[in-house]
């Protein structure tokens, strides 16, 4: 297998099986992490891109599983080193997707799931137009607030910042291919599995694997 120092979207189609890059975005509290965790448990060929962030870890979060936690100086060094496929400042912190990790997984014929914000989604869309872009929404704004508070991981200031940002993020919904309402987690997970399955059957993706009819 070739080694890849820079991102060339076409390279993905040189792998034995085409892989999907799934971008999942949502306003904070909509249930994205809950859904992603469930999807990963049920789908062994699906891997999670562990982002790097300057945000402090929450109580239940584990380094290298939920995020790579770094300070701002380290994050800026990683930007200078071109370590990120995309990065953005979200809720006053830095978040970025590891270029190397994503490319390695795609070349191992894994589908890679990116839990990133709308700014990151826009960057990935430009870099890789074949990415499957999914936006998760809560049933309504009151429920979003209720979930953010029930999670009990942010201060009042931070909750209000996230609710304010949610309105701006929702305006970016038209950059996405699919919208999934997270009313029931089970149904939302099933919807995303259906999207993944259908995307794998798109003719341009399976051009190498057609039966000899
Ligand atoms: P996000 O990653 O989008 O910020 P989380 O996955 O942390 O959101 O979910 C926010 C809170 O809402 C968590 O406490 C989670 O258990 C809860 N939650 C997620 N999905 C649902 C749902 N469908 N119904 C009720 N509560 C939910
Ligand atoms: P949280 O702090 O709640 O884990 O995440 C806050 C926001 O940052 C969420 O919208 C999440 O999707 C986004 N995020 C997480 N990792 C990345 C990343 O690598 N890049 C970008 N652009 N956003 C990210």
Describe it for me?
With 213 residues, this protein is α/β, with parallel strands linked by helices. It has one domain: 3-Layer(aba) Sandwich (Rossmann fold), CATH 3.40.50. Helix content is 38%, strand content 20%. The chain has 7 helices and 9 strands, in the order E-H-E-E-E-H-E-E-H-E-H-E-H-H-E-H. The protein has helices at 32-42, 72-80, 99-107, 118-127, 141-151, 156-170, 185-200; strands at 21-25, 46-48, 51-53, 67-69, 84-90, 93-98, 111-115, 132-137, 178-181. It has a 5-stranded parallel beta sheet with strand order 2-7-1-8-9, sandwiched between helices. A 4-stranded mixed beta sheet has the order 4-3-6-5. A hairpin with a 2-residue loop joins strand 5 (84-90) and strand 6 (93-98). It is globular. The chain starts with 20 loop residues before the first strand and ends in a 13-residue tail after the last helix. Mean pLDDT is 90; it is low at 1-7 and 9-16. Guanosine-5'-monophosphate binds at residues 28, 51, 55, 86, 88, 90-91, 95-97, 115-117, 119-120.
């Amino acid at each position: 297998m070739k080694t890849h120092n820079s991102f060339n979207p076409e390279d993905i189609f040189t792998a034995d099986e085409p892989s999907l890059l799934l971008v999942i975005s949502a306003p904070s509290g909509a249930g994205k992490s809950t859904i992603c965790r469930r999807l990963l448990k049920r789908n062994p060929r699906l891997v999670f891109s562990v982002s790097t962030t300057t945000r402090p870890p929450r109580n239940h979060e584990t380094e290298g599983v939920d995020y790579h936690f770094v300070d701002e100086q380290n994050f800026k060094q990683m930007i200078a080193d071109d370590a990120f496929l995309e990065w953005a400042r979200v809720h006053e912190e830095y978040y970025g997707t590891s270029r190397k990790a994503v490319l390695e997984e795609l070349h191992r014929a894994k589908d890679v799931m990116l839990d990133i914000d709308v700014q990151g989604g826009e960057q990935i869309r430009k870099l890789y137009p074949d990415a499957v872009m999914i936006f998760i929404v809560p049933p309504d704004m009151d429920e979003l607030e209720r979930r953010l508070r029930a999670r009990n991981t942010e201060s009042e200031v931070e909750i209000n910042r996230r609710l304010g940002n949610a309105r701006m993020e929702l305006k970016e919904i038209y950059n996405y291919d699919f919208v999934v309402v997270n009313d029931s987690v089970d149904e939302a997970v099933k919807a995303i599995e259906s999207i993944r399955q259908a995307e794998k059957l798109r003719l341009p993706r399976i051009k190498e694997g057609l039966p000899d009819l």
